[in-house]
Write a structure and sequence with these properties.
The protein is an alpha+beta fold and 238 residues long. Helices cover 18% and strands 35% of the residues. The strands form 2 sheets. Strands 1, 2, 3, 4 and 5 form a 5-stranded antiparallel β-sheet that branches. It has a 4-stranded antiparallel β-sheet with strand order 6-7-8-9, with helices on one face. The radius of gyration is 26 Å and the shape is elongated.
Length: 238
């Protein structure tokens, strides 16, 4: 599948200025005697990014059609590539025929799920602890971060890559002293060494924010909650 994705990176990007270079690059993928431009007439332009293996449909021990996902402008599409595998010790591959561009499948329908029963009292207890945790999680102060981490645990941090802006929402299910919760956090995106300029006309010069969802395992030790683990969020919170 990696071979097909590499081929797609060359095949799906062309312009008249790069025709000779594209032909030379395609030669590394093509069987002898194939059209060096693989059906392109030398006019127009195409650009593709986010090229990733998507699926494989084998027809026998040596032949398969590999689908590669890619993005071109606003469109997400697939490239279907026929591949031949030699099966020898060299593990060699070659493009065995003309590829075909296809529309990508539409996004899946996401079924609704019932919101969990929540513990508002525990959420109120957790909020100041989590605000402190996320502030230090962003800053990279290991000693300060450890004050919010459960005994016997240690967690890495962003080391200053982001700045904590806001704890927007917490969902705390009913449970015991150990619970898995979700938190919606707003990070301030640091702008390198240049300070943000509020009146700048260039949006890239202004510090932005990024809202993200996390799952945390929290433990109550004494009268306080501590974070034992942090991972990426699951389904939409709330």
């Amino acid at each position: 599948m990696a071979f097909a994705a590499q081929f797609a990176g060359v095949y799906l990007n062309f312009s008249p200025e790069d025709a000779a270079s594209r032909s030379n690059k395609l030669a590394a993928f093509l069987a002898e005697g194939m059209d060096p431009q693989m059906g392109w007439d030398g006019y127009g332009k195409l650009a593709a990014v986010a090229i990733q293996p998507y699926d494989i449909e084998p027809s026998d021990a040596h032949n398969a059609v590999v689908s590669v996902a890619f993005q071109s402008g606003p469109r997400r599409m697939l490239l279907s590539v026929p591949i031949y595998y030699s099966g020898d010790e060299g593990r060699r591959f070659v493009v065995a025929g003309r590829p075909a561009i296809l529309p990508a499948p539409a996004p899946a329908d996401l079924p609704q799920v019932a919101a969990p029963e929540t513990d508002d009292a525990a959420a109120a207890e957790l909020k100041p602890q989590l605000e402190g945790f996320f502030k230090e999680y962003a800053s990279g102060d290991a000693n300060a971060l450890q004050r919010y981490v459960a005994a016997g645990k240690s967690l890495p941090s962003f080391g200053g890559a982001f700045t904590f802006s806001q704890l927007k929402e917490i969902v705390v299910p009913v449970g015991g002293a150990t619970r898995e919760i979700q938190a919606v956090v707003v990070w301030a995106v640091n702008n390198g060494d240049a300070p943000p300029t509020p009146n700048a006309t260039d949006p890239a010069a202004v510090g932005g924010t990024l809202e993200q969802v996390y799952r945390l395992t929290v433990e109550k030790q004494g009268d306080k909650w501590f974070v034992a683990d942090i991972r990426g969020g699951g389904r939409v919170v709330g």
